[in-house]
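RECORD TYPE: inverse folding
INPUT: structure tokens
STRUCTURE:
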């Protein structure tokens, strides 16, 4: 059982350090999908309502352990401020003079944000003592810690893991909700249990595929990673994304699936384009006839129907990773078909992964029609893999 905010007792007048995941996609300084900022609001609001002041710590991107303007949390602070309807003061640094002064000035009901926690190399250090030192500096700002950045709970990092050992700590509302919803799919899925995997790389999903081959009833594969599967089956994939070094592994998966009786569903047709561009000339070809000079950028219409049929009568559906390059309208149909089938199915549907969650919103689907939309990419995958996540383990009562 994860410790709850209630276990922290009376928070009136206390300073609470909250780890949020505000790692939003940016176009310059414009947030293109604010889902993670919105998801961070309930916990912060709850703490403010309890009379606490809140210090938000978060990361953006993967800066190399030093400040870099393009990774500033300023856009996230501005958006959070709008959503909360109150000023969110962003410190210029993480644990330096600006942060100390900002924290010292906090009154009950105030919200401050520290600059990108990955501007400090100690955050992601593999050396325990280095992380612990940063964690102690962060802990020095607050009376309690609330871990609410679900998207980072699979990271053993100072602001996620180590700091939770130094202060009274609890899981925030987002982390609790994510863990409850994903557990429904992981621990005891109602069957048929269908998993739809996409995204560009097989190598990102090795652990989860291996695990699902023992748990799921159907595995539907699309996205860039599907070409490594098609190639493993002996098909030619033209200039499509291909991970040569994963071919043997994928052949192993296909063999395992035969033995365990897991149905692996691959596309039968592909939208093949002459280049990677929104307006690239493209046509639908059979999956076993991809021209040598073309790249697959989406699953084809026949495959979209096939995938939808495998989703519609499933009782549990988990989806991670887009079926094609959905950012380009011409290559968004496979992803749309999967999203629509999840909505139409009366099974419990879980969307995991930053990209698929963003796809659902950018393509205009109603988020409320899904059982659960996760804010976590790697974190939700690792939960599906059945791994113990350091950022959750440390919050156990
Ligand atoms: C994410 O975007 O998946 C999370 O914010 C974690 O980021 P990371 O993969 O850079 O640790
Ligand atoms: Mg990631």
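DESIGNED SEQUENCE:
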């Amino acid at each position: 059982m994860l410790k709850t905010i209630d276990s922290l007792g009376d928070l009136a007048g206390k300073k609470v350090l909250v780890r949020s995941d505000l790692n939003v996609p940016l176009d310059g300084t414009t947030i293109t999908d604010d889902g993670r900022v919105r998801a961070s609001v309930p916990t912060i609001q709850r703490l403010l309502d309890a009379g606490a002041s809140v210090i938000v710590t978060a990361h953006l991107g993967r800066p190399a352990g030093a400040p870099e303007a393009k990774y500033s949390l300023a856009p996230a602070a501005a958006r959070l401020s709008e959503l909360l309807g109150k000023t969110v003061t962003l410190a210029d640094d993480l644990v330096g003079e600006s942060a100390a002064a900002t924290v010292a000035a906090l009154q009950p009901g105030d919200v401050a944000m520290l600059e990108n926690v990955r501007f400090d190399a100690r955050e992601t250090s593999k050396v325990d003592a280095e992380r612990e030192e940063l964690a102690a500096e962060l802990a020095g700002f607050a009376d309690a810690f609330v871990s609410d950045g679900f998207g980072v709970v699979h990271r053993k990092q100072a602001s996620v893991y180590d700091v939770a050992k130094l202060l009274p700590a609890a899981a925030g509302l987002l982390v609790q909700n994510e863990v409850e919803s994903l557990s429904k799919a992981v621990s005891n899925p109602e069957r048929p249990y269908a998993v739809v995997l996409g995204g560009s790389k097989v190598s990102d999903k090795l652990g989860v595929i291996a695990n699902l081959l023992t748990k799921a009833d159907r595995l539907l594969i699309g996205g860039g990673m599907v070409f490594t599967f098609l190639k493993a089956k002996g098909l030619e994939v033209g200039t499509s994304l291909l991970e040569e070094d994963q071919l043997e592994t994928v052949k192993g998966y296909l063999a395992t699936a035969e033995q365990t009786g897991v149905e692996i569903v691959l596309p039968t047709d592909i939208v093949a384009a002459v280049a990677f561009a929104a307006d690239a000339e493209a046509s639908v070809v059979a999956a076993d006839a991809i021209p040598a000079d073309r790249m697959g950028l989406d699953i084809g219409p026949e495959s979209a129907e096939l995938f939808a049929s495998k989703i519609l009568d499933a009782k549990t559906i988990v989806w991670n990773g887009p079926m094609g390059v959905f950012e380009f309208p011409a290559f968004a149909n496979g992803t749309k078909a999967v999203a629509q089938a999840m909505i139409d199915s009366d099974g419990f549907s879980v969307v995991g992964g930053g990209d698929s969650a963003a796809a659902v919103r950018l393509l205009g689907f109603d988020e409320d029609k899904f059982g659960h939309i996760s804010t976590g990419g790697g974190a939700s995958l690792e939960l599906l893999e059945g791994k113990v996540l350091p950022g959750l383990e440390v919050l156990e009562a």
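NOTES: The radius of gyration is 22 Å.
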